[in-house]
Every structure is written in C-alpha cells, then in structure tokens.
Amino acid sequence: MSAAKTNSLEARSVDLDLRLEIERLTRRNVDLEQSNAALARSNEDLERFAFVASHDLQEPLRMITTYAQLLAQKYDGLLDQDAALFVGNIVDGSTHMRDLLADLLGYTELATRPLGPAEAVDLNAVLETVKQNLKALIDESEAVLTADPLPVVSGHPSHFIPLFQNLVANAIRYRGECPPRIHIAVQSMGNQIRFAVSDNGIGIAPEHHLQIFEPFKRLHGKNIPGTGIGLAICKRVVERYGGRIWVESKAGEGATFLFSLPVSAAPTVSSSE
Known about the structure:
- With 273 residues, the chain is α+β, with helices and mostly antiparallel strands.
- The protein has helices at residues 3-56, 58-74, 81-112, 123-133, 135-141, 157-173, 230-240, and strands spanning 119-122, 144-147, 152-155, 181-189, 192-198, 244-249, 255-262.
- It has two domains: 1-113, Orthogonal Bundle (Helix Hairpins); 119-262, Heat Shock Protein 90 (2-Layer Sandwich).
- Helix 2 packs antiparallel against helix 3 and helix 4 (123-133) packs across helix 6.
- The strands form two sheets. Strands 2-4-5-7-6 form a five-stranded mixed β-sheet.
- The chain contains seven helices and seven strands; from the N terminus they run αααβααββαββαββ.
C-alpha cells in the first residue's frame, strides 16, 4: 500500500474518532443541561413548597400560641407546678416555631417574591429602622451601636433591613461578659463597597466560619435564642446583589462580618421569578 493511501486511511480514522468524540461530548452536554434544568426545577419547587408551608402554617400556629397564653393568664396561680410547666412549654415552643416560620418565610421570599424596579435606598435610614426594631434588645443588653456614614444603594429596603438587622442582632445575642460594642464601617474599594460589622462578643472558631451561613446551623443550640436562619438570609441578600459575605473571627476575640456589594448594586433576577 502506498504512503498516500496509508496517510488517507489514517486521516479518515482520525476524523472518525474525532467525530465520535464530538458526538459523545455533545450527548454529555445535553445530559448535563437536562440534569441542570431538572435540578433548577426541583430547587424552585422546594422554594415554593417552603414558602407555602411557612405561610400557611402561620395562622394555626398563631392560634395555638394565643390560646396557650390565654390559658396561662386565666389560670395563673391556680395550676399545679406540673400543669404550669406544661403550659409554659407550649407557649415557648409555639413562639419559637412562629419565629422560625417567619424567618423561613423571609428566606424563601428572597428567591420567590417578584420584585418591582430597584430604588434608591439610604442605608442610614435602614439602620435607624433596625435600631427601632431592636430597641428592646439594645436597651436590655446596654449595647452601643455606631456606624460610619452609610451610602445610598440601588435596591429594595425589604432586603437591606433584614441584612443589617440580623447582623446587629447576632452581635448582641452572642455577646460576652461586657456590654456589646458594635460598629459598622464602610470602605470604598474601586467598583466595590465593603461593609464591616464588628463586635466584642464571644467570637467564632475558624472551623465554623463557613457553616454558620447555612440554614439552621446554630453553634450554641438553645443556649442563645435564635432560629438559625438569620445569617443564611444575609448571605442570600448579599449574593442576590452580586456580592459576597464572610466572617473574620477567633473564639473569644469578637467577630467582624464583612460583605461587599458592587457600587451599582441591583438585585439579580432569580430563575424562580
């Protein structure tokens, strides 16, 4: 066989192998696209289920809480020790569940609730709202909250209020022996704005820095009140605006929660909207 024919056969073989490999990669890409689409639909279904479940459970839970509280008030001093303890546990449990559902509803709304046009949001006004919402907690703990002048960003107040409120509330709840001292710093970094919420609390060990941003991850169980969703809400808000959030801390040395937002921050539209 001549060298020309041999080269031709080898070229055809290489061409066939190349076409087969292209077909294999094409099929694999199609499979991956189908799997991603199915996963996205599944995530959307789970988000909607969580939204509906947390929303529809609010009313029956409110009734349980209300009637348990009425029972405790009406028979105050008349119940024996065990009965009073049982009623108190019902009130505490239903109240905690109500708070948990409210936070879960807020978490899922960030992905499922349709948004109107972005607007100018003065974060100084947002912080004042947060102070009013947390007034009882701030007063009880003798917390001191200070902040640099905060910028105006493009977005929705319903996002930034829970973002700052959860960070400030956590700084107060996870306090040490001294009254909480919390400061919100702002730094311009090119096309990014970086916020730092620092406290003098009990701190967080480095091995927990990632897991605390996942839903229902609580490091101290029932010893410190909370639902375990607050930081997950913060992460979802920041990432929706194209930023990122992280923590710098060591156990016993306070914590600084940092998050960055693009200067022209505006919420991205999720696939579920």
